[in-house]
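Why does residue order matter? Because the sequence determines the fold. Keep that principle in mind as you read this record.
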Amino acid sequence: MTAVVVVGAQWGDEGKGKIVDIFTEHAEMVVRFGGGPNAGHTLVVGDQKFVVRLIPSGILREQTTCVLAQGMAIDPFSLVTELDELAKRGLVRGKSSLLVSDRAHAILPYHVLVDGLREKGPDALGTTKRGVGPCYEDKAARRGVPLGLLRDLPRAEALIARALACWAPTIASLAAESPKVADVMEKLREVAPRIVPLLDETSKLVERAVRDGKRVLFEGAQGTLLDIDHGTYPFVTSSHATAGGACTGSGVGPSKIDFVVGLVKAYTTRVGGGPFPTELNDDTGERLRKRGNEFGSVTGRPRRTGWLDLPALRYAVRVNGLDGLAITKLDVLTGLDEVKVCVAYRTGGRTTEDFPIDDAEHAEPIYESMPGWSADLTKARKMSDLPDTAQRYIQRLERDAGCPVILVSVGPGRDETIALRDPFTVVRRSG
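Structure:
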């Protein structure tokens, strides 16, 4: 296997940072293909904790080149801050460790302003207010600013003036004052010398790495149910969070992808607004939140928690073409006498085992209960180390999802993992 894609199979926050870090032990390149600083990936190595928002989780591996591909929306000011933080730890070694696409679009101060103002209104979606959505709006409207224009600031200035003229009525309607073009340009001139040396035609470099047989891991952001096309619209992100986004966002054709891994928590969480049929607004939900430390790594907001949704997981397996599942935070369920899973829905006067993607707000989940466990799981390193009830829970998930489990995480640390199969060496399932 050469090209492996890792995506979230729920509403994001599935633990992609840790799993990507584990899978990149032997990877030579890690590519972020979508999203922006709204995606916080947490890594725990020993007694050190790292939170990366733009830079791929593979940055901890010395042999790995990290790529911010053209499908991303990149805040140049946040990028410089993150580079400084990582440089203090000796984790960024210039272009040998990090490449940035010159076609990725820049999140600029007016994008952040609009995003924040909208979230104060009645139609708030629960975004991270990092400007990601407005940046993608400008990209689709053909007035965005690719990072490559940091090499040609007069051209960038003309596009920024055009964009600000378009945003001015929106900003005024939200009772705020538009930034001045000169002020935006002054800030860009400060960071451009730091970013320009990292810019490159990354799609060409990524495709060449795959063609040369190098092990390349494509790191997704957010999750399947937040995908702009396949998520619970309109409560979605502005990019393609499914596996297909790895191709459009990095410039590699679909025939080059060898294996797709979907990450799924042993329960379910969601941040912000939107339907969440299996949400728990009770003591059990609060217990999951506290034990799982379910607070956004970017915003600090408490995440909504609920039982595992098997119809939603099957949906994620289908739209991503998943070849393997990585289960995270199984240890958080320890101590519960029973664990429930959603197995079907009642919606529109009928029962269905499909996820009601367009009626999730009104659909009624149907649950089955399974016995819980009380044993500490964090020392487990193979499946037989787990209690029988925990093993049966994993087997049920695997069977109902129709996709093999290749990894189980039993704690936040890199070593607190049951690794069943390496996606770079596993034989892909047929059919």
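The chain has a mean pLDDT of 92.
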